[in-house]
Amino acid sequence: MLVDSPPEQRAETAPAPPNRRAIRAAGLLVSLGVLLAVAVASIAIGAKHLPVDQVWHGLFQDSGTYSDVVVRERLSRTVLGLLVGAALGLAGAVLQALTRNPLADPGLLGINVGASAAVVTAITFFGVTSLTGYVWFAFAGAAIVGVLVYSLGGSRSATPVRLALAGTALTAALSGYLQAVMIMDNAALGKMRFWTVGSLGSATNATIMQVLPFLAVGTVLALGLARPLNAVAMGDDTARALGAHLTRTRALSMIAATLLCGAATAACGPIAFVGLMVPHAVRSFTGPDLRWILPYAAVLSPVLLLGADVMGRIIARPAELQVGIVTAVIGGPVFIYLVRRRRTAQL
Amino acid sequence: MKPTRSQVTGSAAGGHSGSPARGSRGAASAQPLRIRAVRSRGLSVRLDIRALTVVVLLIVAALVASVVLIGTGDFPIPAADVIRTLMGNGDAGQEFIVNELRLPRVLVGLLVGAALGLGGALFQSISRNPLGSPDVLGLGQGSTAGALIMIVLFKGSAFQVAGGSLVGGLLTGLAIYVLAWKRGVHGYRLVLVGIGVSAVVTAVNGYLLTKADLVDAARAVVWMTGSLNGRGWEQVWPLLTLCAVLVPLVLVNARPLRMLEMGDDVAYALGVRVERTRMLLMLSAVLLTASATAAAGPVSFVALTAPQLSRRLTRSPGPNLVPAMCMGAALLIVADWASQRAFGADQLPVGVVTGVVGGVYLLWLLVTERKAGRI
Fold first, then answer.
1. Where are the transmembrane segments (chain A) (predicted)?
2. Fold of the domain built from segment(s) A7-11+27-341
């Protein structure tokens, strides 16, 4: 009986659900509306400003005019922003639940630095120069590090602390390698310093198609993990008592997070903070139930990412500020505010 | 990330101090034979024999490594000659190489290592988190930002870069403290705020790097890795002065710090002025770390690993300040020697070695602790 419906979850949803659930659903709808508005803004605003009717024209009656071409270019950038944003938010939420650590983000598990190390290897030792070439390397690097962290973290008997420590250790070793290569090879430094800040500027349809399958599988997996992860969040013993399959849940969560972060990082470089911050912000009004946190994070993370991207274009017009820089500069203070406002930001 | 948990593990392991066992009072009383008390006329000093041995051994190791390091380079000098020259009886050529070129570099290494080890031990103790090192809290990034501004925007001299990094580190430390302040500084909040600040500063650093031309960027990356190349007497004196003031100040407060590890309420009940002690110690830790970083760049992982390693050697609870300091100095000198031996003189800065070694050490720790069932 416990296996089917854990008592905590029943208690969570049963007593006063209609009201709260309605509010949460409405909130999700509002968030979707905001996301749509930000997406339109992301197409309209830039070095060349386009009014909304021209955006509409470019999207649905493309006749090859100059502004239509601009719309097409910005459309792929916006789509990539949507996908990557959602991926980072979902991955952050999953990792935070999995490691029971509010600080967990792709950086903590070494996924960013794995991707970076692979890209620097590609540039220096394999002579790869194109962005579409980096993608596979970055993804492979992220995936390898993801697997390593999981197996070093104890695979079947992985605990949150061990996973975090394994991530930190690999990050240290790999960043030593990364710095050594950048010091020895100026060409690699020239490329890496732009890649590591994280930017949507190089989005093309080819990149999107490269990462889309991974993102799709990762998203489905992550959303499906909401229930088991809810149980895991209560602690190993409770989760086991509730009938959750700990090993399987952990392995699947790592796979989902690696797919999502790896693909996102491969497409636009390491973008800090979206995955860390959005789940935090979301949790403050959804409560700890991952069945709400995950969809909210998937909708609100792209809002943050695209919003930051648009701001980067406005601030530094006619040039642009990379989105990774803007998210960190906005995200940092918001994160500190959240930390200060709560008593302690523990999960 | 939960100190309470590791506390339980630590005392369960019978004073083995396996996982980061901070403030486990049980560990000390489980092995009373290791502790001796020296009493004479009302004055009584508690001596931890094992910790004392570790400290002596570490100092010897650091000195031996220093002599070897002075002898290493394009112009190798045998150890006996190095010692003779240091005593003032060498020939003119060796005297120049030893006293003007290599000795100051080694001294900077020893001082930076000691300052980072002590600063790291203080931060880990104050934040009650084994990962709460200055690297994680963003002090290194703050120093880097100051240095990068000097390198990229003003094309400053080495002296100006050091000044910029010192100011950057101090301002970041201040910002973290002020932002984490809310009727006192809670260890957990300190780490979280530090991570937030560090992310913002990292982004600024990334931006500065993209704006630099390639020559400046290359210089900046070497600085950011942490290097002892070309360090001379002008770095030794300020560092030495600062350490001479701060190290005694910190050691006097080692007892209240140890009580702070038991929690604010307990410490308060034991008569510790919690916030004052914490502020004083944090300020010292920030100053130590920032000036070490100004001298050699943010050498990664010494501050994180030195306290952990020394705790495992002494097997004693508490902050282990002196062992951590000696361990930091020994680590940095050995790492500098390794980087010169492995890659040739001045090819790769010491920070690369500390990063890789630190990472491998953490991994090894992870595997062995798992086998022993301690994490």
1. 25-47, 75-95, 107-128, 134-152, 164-188, 208-230, 251-273, 293-312, 319-339
2. ABC transporter involved in vitamin B12 uptake, BtuC (1.10.3470)
Tokens in use for A252? 């699947």
Do the Cβ atoms of B210 and A193 come within 8 Å?
Answer: yes
Please name the residues between 285 and 304 in chain A that touch chain B, using a CB distance below 8 Å.
Answer: none
B55 interfacial to chain A (CB closer than 8 Å): no
**B375 contact residues in A (CB cutoff 8 A):** 159, 161-162, 165
Q: Record the tokens describing residue B361, joined without a space.
A: 């050490």
Domains of chain A, by residue range, sit at: 7-11+27-341
Contact A141, A116 (CB under 8 A): yes
Of the two residues A1 and B143, the one the predictor is more confident about is B143
Measured between beta carbons, the chain B residues lying within 8 angstroms of A185 are none
Count of Cβ atoms closer than 10 Å to residue B210 Cβ: 17
Q: Which distant-in-sequence residues (6+ apart) come within 8 Å of A109 by Cβ?
A: A95, A145, A146, A149, A163, A164, A166, A167, A257, A261
Peptide bond into A102 cis (omega under 30): no
Q: Are B375 and A165 in contact (CB under 8 A)?
A: yes
Q: Are B332 and B350 in contact (CB under 8 A)?
A: yes
Residue A34 has pLDDT above 60, yes or no: yes
CA distance A260 to A282: 19
Judge whether A136 is closer than 8 Å to chain B, CB to CB. Answer: no
Residue B288 tokens read as 């130590």
Regions of chain B with pLDDT less than 50: 1-31, 375
How far is B360 from chain A, CA to nearest CA, in Å?
6
> What is the reported pLDDT for A81?
92
Give the whole-angstrom CA distance, residue A262 versus residue A311.
25
Measuring CA to CA, how many Å separate A51 from each of A46, A141, A318? 11, 42, 17
Backbone angles phi, psi at A178, to 5 degrees: -60, -45
Contacts of A158 in chain B (CB under 8 A): none
CATH T-level assignment (fold) for domain B50-56+104-371: ABC transporter involved in vitamin B12 uptake, BtuC (1.10.3470)
Please check whether residue B279 touches A, CB under 8 A.
no
Domain extents for chain B? 50-56+104-371
ipTM score of complex: 0.74
Identity of the residue in A161, A196, A345 whose CB atom sits nearest the CB atom of B192: A345
Q: Where are the alpha helices (H) located in B127-232, listed in sequence order?
A: 134-137, 139-148, 158-180, 187-211, 214-225
Say yes or no for a CB contact (<8 Å) between A183 and B210. no
Please give, rounded to a whole number of angstroms, the shortest distance from the CA of A18 to a CA of chain B.
36
- A251-309 pLDDT per residue, tens: 888 889 888 988 888 888 888 778 888 888 888 778 888 888 999 999 999 999 999 99
Residue of B nearest to A105 (CA): B195
Cα→Cα distances B210→A128, A189, A191, B148, Å: 20, 10, 10, 11
Q: What is the pLDDT of residue A156?
A: 59
CB of B363 within 8 Å of any CB in chain A? yes
Residue of B129, B223, B331, B363 for testing the chain A interface, max A β-carbons within 10 Å: B363
**Chain length of chain B:** 375
> What is the tens place of the pLDDT at every residue in B312-331?
888 877 778 899 999 999 99
At A89-136, the pLDDT tens digits run 999 999 888 877 766 777 767 788 888 889 888 888 887 777 777 788
**d(Cα A220, Cα A274) in Å, to the nearest integer?**
20
